[in-house]
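testing teh design pipeline on a random one, pls ignore if ur not involved
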């Protein structure tokens, strides 16, 4: 089992893939050398990595891995199954597609871009729904109760949320793949790096792991388009409770459209949620799992 968990370091589809971690560390060291961040207080400190909230992250990470294998995975179909269903339905309802107008390169680029855009847009929509719908917020607040943030905090999610996120990925990928398979006669091939969408791979290398960290790194004018670590940290700020601020994953343009975009200007005083608003104990793994079912919170 431990081998399976450590295999995440060699899984390009996971945020803990070792090149993503190395690139994040490189960006952090560069920012430290330029005096933009304090590596001593924001990265290389036991108070961060052994905080009770961080230890709860580690415990939930282990438990979720087990639940994902035993419960979540058996409930999901593959995106390939969804794509086949989409092709069959479109063929039945629309018949044969018209002649595909793009060449191989343009097809690959457009297919790759659409897969990425559809995935990122629907992640934004689901994330925003997690905050807007009270019954979804009961589960999503498990992620927001983290009082310190490390790359493992990404995995601090309730299994119910994990199931919804996985289902979204399967349906969106399958739908886009099916539409392109029907339209191109099965000739569409996405541009990938180690089996990962090339755009997502590049953005993961650009420091995605720093979003769940204490390193206040802004992207300046690029924050109108791409979500910076500092912007996501504002989403976790205790001042906002995560509401109405920077719901995007890779792209911030969805927040611009949804009027929830806030650029990085003032660093949060702390992360997490106020204790009176919680339905669980943020330092206790069992409470993280059971609390959303027992108490509503706000």
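output:
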């Amino acid at each position: 089992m431990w081998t399976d968990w450590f295999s995440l370091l060699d899984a390009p589809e996971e945020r803990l893939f070792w090149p993503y971690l190395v690139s994040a560390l490189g960006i952090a060291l560069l920012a430290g050398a330029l005096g933009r961040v304090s590596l001593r207080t924001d990265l290389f400190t036991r108070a961060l990595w052994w905080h009770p909230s961080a230890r709860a992250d580690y415990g939930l990470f282990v438990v979720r891995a087990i639940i994902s294998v035993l419960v979540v995975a058996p409930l999901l179909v593959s995106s390939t199954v969804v794509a086949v269903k989409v092709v069959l339905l479109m063929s039945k309802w629309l018949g044969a597609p018209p002649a595909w107008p793009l060449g191989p390169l343009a097809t690959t680029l457009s297919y790759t871009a659409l897969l990425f855009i559809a995935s990122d847009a629907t992640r934004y929509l689901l994330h925003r729904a997690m905050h807007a719908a009270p019954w979804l917020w009961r589960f999503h607040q498990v992620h927001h109760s983290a009082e310190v943030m490390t790359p493992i905090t990404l995995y601090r999610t309730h299994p119910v949320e994990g199931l919804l996120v996985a289902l979204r990925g399967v349906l969106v990928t399958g739908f886009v793949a099916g539409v392109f398979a029907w339209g191109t006669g099965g000739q569409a091939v996405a541009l990938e790096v180690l089996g990962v969408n090339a755009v997502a791979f590049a953005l993961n290398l650009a420091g995605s792991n720093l979003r769940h960290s204490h390193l206040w790194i802004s992207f300046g004018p690029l924050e109108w388009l791409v979500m910076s670590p500092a912007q996501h940290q504002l989403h976790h700020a205790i001042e906002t409770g995560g509401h109405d601020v920077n719901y995007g994953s890779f792209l911030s343009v969805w927040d611009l459209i949804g009027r929830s975009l806030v650029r990085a200007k003032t660093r949060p005083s702390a992360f997490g949620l106020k204790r009176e608003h919680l339905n669980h104990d943020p330092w206790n793994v069992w409470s993280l799992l059971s609390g959303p079912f027992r108490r509503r919170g706000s």
